[in-house]
Amino acid sequence: MSKILILYSSVDGHTHAICLRLAEQLKTDYAITLHSLDDADLPSPQQFDKIILGASIRYGKHRPNVESYIRQYKTLLDDKACAVFSVNLVARKAEKNTPESNPYLQKLLAQCDWQPQLKGVFAGKVDYQKYRFFDRQMIRAIMWMTKGPTALDSSIDYTDWPSVDAFAQRIHQL
User: Fold this and answer.
1) Where are the alpha helices (DSSP H) in the chain?
2) d(CA 37, CA 53)
3) Are 120 and 159 in contact (CB under 8 A)?
4) pLDDT tens digits, 24-72
5) Residue-wise pLDDT tens digits, 120-152
6) Helices and strands in the chain, H and E counts
7) Which residues lie closer than 8 Å to 60 by C-beta, 6 or more apart?
């Protein structure tokens, strides 16, 4: 059975939830290994047939561990079947919800000079009650500027879950 490594960088857990959904969709055909990029002992990507990397955005940036991982293993990733996806609230807007139109994914790939075979973008989740005070205020200000929800009791999942499932199906074709 082919082996897939699913790695994620998640601040509030939504990217992890998307990775769990992908793993659920793929587990009948693949041996799945799921890890946070924050884990101390990450397995070597060399032992896997396919690698999936999911990364969330906070304050307009992917976390540094995403770029570090790609740079560290770029030569190996270039020779593997790879997929990457970005989770960000900008993707809730139709004009920024594709790999070609999402500025965050485009910036990450350009900075790392990496072009995986499969790319995806998923809108994230606003969950004010889950955020710490500072993050709640900052995200609320960003949402106000971008005409998003600002009510502090808001919890809105913008993720198009059927698109996540379709992404899982495209991983089979890698």
Assistant:
1) 14-26, 64-78, 103-112, 133-145, 161-171
2) 9
3) no
4) 999 999 999 999 999 989 999 999 999 999 999 988 899 999 999 999 9
5) 999 999 999 999 999 889 889 888 988 889 999
6) 5, 8
7) 104
